[in-house]
Amino acid sequence: MNFQPARGFVLAASPYAEADKIVQLYTLQWGRVRALVKGARKPKSRLSPALDLFNESGFSLHKGRSGDLYVLSQAKVLDTHPELKKDLPAITALQVLADILIQAIHDAEPHPDIYGLVRRTLAALEAKAGDPELILAAFTVKFLDLSGYPLELDACAECGTSLEKKKIHLIPHRGGALCGDCCASGPERLKVSPAGLEVLKKMRTLPMEKIHILKLKPPFLREIFLTMLEYLERTIEKRLKTVEYYLRISSKF
Amino acid sequence: MAEYPPSLERLLHELEKLPGVGPRSAQRLAFHMLKQPLEAAKALSAALLDARTRLHPCRDCFNLTEETLCRICAQATRDRASLLVVEDPSDVAAFERTREYHGLYHVLGGTLSPLEGRGPQDLTLDALVSRVQKDGGFKEVIVATDPTVEGDSTGLYIQQLLKGMPVHGEPGRTIKVSRLARGLPSGGDVEYADETTLLKALEGRREI
Ligand SMILES: [Zn+2]
Ligand SMILES: [Zn+2]
After folding, report:
1. What is the structure's pLDDT at A124?
2. Up-side HSE of residue B160: CA atoms within 13 Å toward CB?
3. A35 and A154 share one domain
């Protein structure tokens, strides 16, 4: 047997066959992987406590017979984030975060910086260090940077002129913020106000633990949150399934 | 290109649509049925067709039934002050096996699970709210969804929906919403739990 130790988070778990589960993991050593967990739905399963959303564990994985599906045979739970699972806004934020990671990361390539960012994001959510929308928006800015799609925010991504006192739009696939001269029209434009641009810059530079010092009014925060998610969706050319759900559920918070 | 005659290919194709059945299990099931007498295949297809045409959700609780109301809703002796909210009809069966729960049920049809595209509109939540409102006799609603993030968020959402609803005939008193105790291991599945475990979880429930 070819065992591989891995430290990772559970992004999703779905029932499989009689009593098994297939889990999606984001691991430090192997990037994103899928693994089969035998007997995971039986109450006596020693593995089931490890399989809840964003539980972080040390796993033993080994290559299964069929292609890229691993078999998960052991799990030592490191953190179950119980505080994060007590209220609806926090859980819903976790689901959006899982959706982003599932949609945006496909390769089994390790990326320790992104792994660290996920950990710090969970810690910020757990400490209630800021509104979940603020934390997720900041996560998205930082995640794009680390994924090789950094947003140009300091000058027009195409002509390089200063963005001060200009109409600004964010355009996925064209590098970030563009001045009005460079993007006269087009459905792909995401409008951003000068104040919004300043917030995005701070989201990039402030460490996640300090994000909470940004105090934004709820409608403004919502606008930035949705703009960043849409920017990400267009960049990766995937729809996030959880955004509509988030908006619907958050009306009940 | 087909490896098998068309009728067999068609059978395999249909079997593979079932949850947890891959190509290998489909072949195993198909070859097993083909070795049995013709009567066995007729009985299976008749049973499937019969169940599918006769069964529908209970008018009140969405449990499966052949009548307007399921047996539990129709039973006069049930405790009508208590409502146990479960994911699936199989969970109703699991709690009935404990023989200790005497209240009514409400079958949601799953949990809130945005990653699988299941939102509030896909569950029987509107029906739950109007049932609790109209009936007026419930004093406690117990959420018995799986001990997972999806199960927990469904419980919290139900709590938001029912928060502050009055208990009829008792001025000032509001409906209590509680959640099964975490006697069930987290990440587990209610339908697989044995009677003792379910009973302990039920007894140790706490208000949310
Ligand atoms: Zn420009
Ligand atoms: Zn019924």
Report:
1. 95
2. 17
3. no
Backbone angles phi, psi at B155, to 5 degrees: -60, -45
Determine the distance in angstroms separating the CA of B19 from the nearest CA of chain A, rounded to an integer: 7
Contacts of B19 in chain A (CB under 8 A): 15
What is the layout of strands, in order, in the sheet containing A176-179? A176-179, A168-171, A190-192
Question: Are A99 and A37 contained in the same domain?
Answer: no
Residue carrying the six token digits 């796993």: A59
Q: Which residue of A has its CA nearest to B184?
A: A43
Domains of chain B listed by start with CATH number: 6-54 (1.10.8.420), 69-207 (3.40.1360.10)
pLDDT (average), residues A17-22: 85
Whose structure tokens read 């693994």?
A35
- Least confident range from A154-168, A220-234, B66-80, B171-185: namely B171-185
Q: What is the pLDDT of residue B1?
A: 45
Of the candidates A127, A131, A122, A114, which has an alpha carbon nearest to the alpha carbon of residue A219? A131
Pair (A44, A148) in one structural domain: no
Q: Would you call B192 and A19 a contact, using CB atoms and an 8 Å cutoff?
A: yes
Entry pTM = 0.88
Span from the CA of A200 to the centroid of ligand 1 (angstroms): 18
How far apart are the C-alpha atoms of B106 and A187, rounded to whole Å? 46
Could you give the C-alpha distances from A96 to A8, A13, A126, A243, A244, in angstroms and in order?
Answer: 18, 15, 15, 7, 10
- Cα angle for residues B189, B191, B193 (degrees, 5° grid): 75
ipTM strictly over 0.95? no
* CATH number for the domain that contains residue A75: 2.40.50.140
B200-203 long-range contacts (CB < 8 A, ≥24 apart) are: B201/B144, B202/B95, B202/B98, B202/B100, B202/B101, B202/B142, B202/B144
Surrounding residues of ion ligand 1, Cβ less than 5 A: A 156, 158-159, 179, 182
Residue A50 shares a structural domain with residue A174: no
| Shared-domain flag, residues A115 and A60 | no
pLDDT for the residue B172: 87
Take residue A174 and report the two structure tokens written for it.
């064209």
pLDDT score recorded for residue A184: 76
A212: containing domain: 83-250
Is residue B77 classed as helix, strand or coil in its secondary structure? coil
**E strand residue ranges, chain B:** 56-57, 64-65, 79-86, 103-107, 140-143, 176-179, 206-207
d(CA B72, CA B78): 7
Contact between residue A137 and residue A224 where contact means Cβ atoms under 8 Å apart: yes
Instruction: Say how many domains are in chain A.
Output: 2
